[in-house]
Amino acid sequence: MRRYERIARDLRDAINRGDYRPGDTIPHEPELMERYGASRHAVRTAVAALTREGLVIPVRRRGTVVRDRAGRRRVRRGLLVRRDHRGYVMPAAAREGEPWQVHGRPRRDTVPIPARAAELLGLEEGATALRRRRVTSPEGEPPFQLVDTWIHPDAVADAPQVAERDTGPGGYLDRLEEAGHGPLSWAEYIRVRMPAPDEARLLGMPTSMPVMEIARVGTSARTNAPVEATICIIPGDRVELVTQLRRAPSARWRDRSAHHDGS
Amino acid sequence: MRRYERIARDLRDAINRGDYRPGDTIPHEPELMERYGASRHAVRTAVAALTREGLVIPVRRRGTVVRDRAGRRRVRRGLLVRRDHRGYVMPAAAREGEPWQVHGRPRRDTVPIPARAAELLGLEEGATALRRRRVTSPEGEPPFQLVDTWIHPDAVADAPQVAERDTGPGGYLDRLEEAGHGPLSWAEYIRVRMPAPDEARLLGMPTSMPVMEIARVGTSARTNAPVEATICIIPGDRVELVTQLRRAPSARWRDRSAHHDGS
DNA sequence: CAGTGGTCTAGACCACAAC
DNA sequence: TTGTGGTCTAGACCACTGA
What we know:
Arc Repressor Mutant, subunit A, alpha+beta, two-stranded antiparallel ribbon, elongated, disordered C terminus, homodimer, Chorismate lyase, DNA-binding, 7 helices, about 25% helix, 11 strands
């Protein structure tokens, strides 16, 4: 067993035993170096392993903190866009009636549009667009998802209220639909990738843990072009998509009583 | 710009320019150390960055090889289990009639069941079970998916032919259904994680790139318990799940002509 | 301002796997 | 046998940032 493996194992066991609880810090680097007679590199390699596993997260000035692992949420995937009583699209992970909270304060900025959002909206990379950004989770849990909503500049021109702080009853989607783009239709794109540093920071997750990216693009019924894109980033250890499958008509089932053996 | 960033940028540009083509090796470590006057650590950090991006993959003895990036496949997700003319479940990524190939030779082993498969089949971890393992891709492309099929030991007892090399017409699923478990019903579970070293090796991908894990569990109509689980691992840069969404009945659309503003 | 993160040097040894 | 991967030592300096 390698030295860093031994250090990592000891720390992992201690965390799993509860010697260190969520929010506690594990011993800092100089102490681990002394305790194991190891170089800083070896200690850092050990802690990096725990970080990749999502057990701990380094926090500047405080030390390496044991992460609150809230467990995996099963996200039931259907084919429906659900909207809550205010008209906002419900998080796919939300159970009916379940209270959700916002972490920090939601942002509303006009920023240079990154490659992925530009691709989804059919824009040039580097142009600026309106972004709404918020971090949410089920009530009482650590951050679950980072949600960015991008609105196409043309659509903002059609429905200026979508750029306001208060988008009015039913939210920005109703404004877009009223402005001649309704009824919107949506497609969903799911990818796997590593988080950008700012995404990881906002989600309280290590950059070495992958995320699931769920992008939903709303297309105008009038122009048949994308008008809004919502990109949802979820830490990989927090989510599992679940779907009940049906048997396709071609997926025959022959039971043993019906034994005519047709090719 | 950090030294390793500069090295990484130069190599990235050279690869994108086509100076190094898929299958070529980039200059090896001693040469890069000399060319940039950098330590091995700095050079390795630079190459590690390219590896994370999926541009290159280290191959023992050959060097660091430029990866054949076959691009992302859009996997249209529906709710149906499709089976081909032989009765086998079709890869979700397969287009109708598209030829697929197998990489290496399919394996059929009785091995200790890992945690994930045990969980899906409701077995104790460490017990042994029958695994069929194969790596497939669309014809002519590098490995796309690693598919492991696990069959519950009880189900093997019910339908011994599923453990044979030739599982007969319609494949193992027909054998299970004939043995009294039909019609099977399936659920699908999608997760995000980092690959195990052997998974990464079989898929020709770096261990620092995430994978999408798509698990399909078949449940017996008779016992109402899982009888088979198929776990499909796909490199994160090769796949995108796509779903067309429908509007839920509650997701009202009010057009501007119908302006009665009902709360 | 302490304790991380990140970068960097200049060495070392062993394992592994493909050519 | 060669060129990786991986591990390790023993240093160094700077940046960041939250208590």
